[in-house]
Design brief:
Strand content: over 45%
Order of helices and strands: EHEEEEH
Number of strands: 5
Distance between the termini: 18 Å
Number of helices: 2
Structural class: alpha+beta
Strand order of the largest sheet: 1-5-4-3-2
Number of domains: 1
């Protein structure tokens, strides 16, 4: 199945705390990447991948259709 995808970069020194709350809320869908600076969630309708650096995060999402992409 072909997935729709989007990505954005969030530049903010405090974004890690926000993303950590998101991670904790959805930990049952987390895939172990083996890298503390990168994590991934997979659900039946799509995925979210976050890659962190010193000042922000690159977020990539993919989903089966536009209703699941948000």
């Amino acid at each position: 199945m072909k997935l729709l995808s989007a990505q954005t970069r969030i530049q903010n020194d405090d974004i890690r705390a926000v993303m950590d709350r998101l991670r904790a809320e959805h930990s049952d869908h987390e895939i172990d990447t083996g890298d503390a600076g990168r994590w991934e969630f997979r659900m039946h309708y799509g995925s979210l991948n976050a890659s962190f650096d010193d000042h922000g995060v690159l977020v990539r999402v993919a989903a089966e259709d536009e209703t699941c992409l948000s």
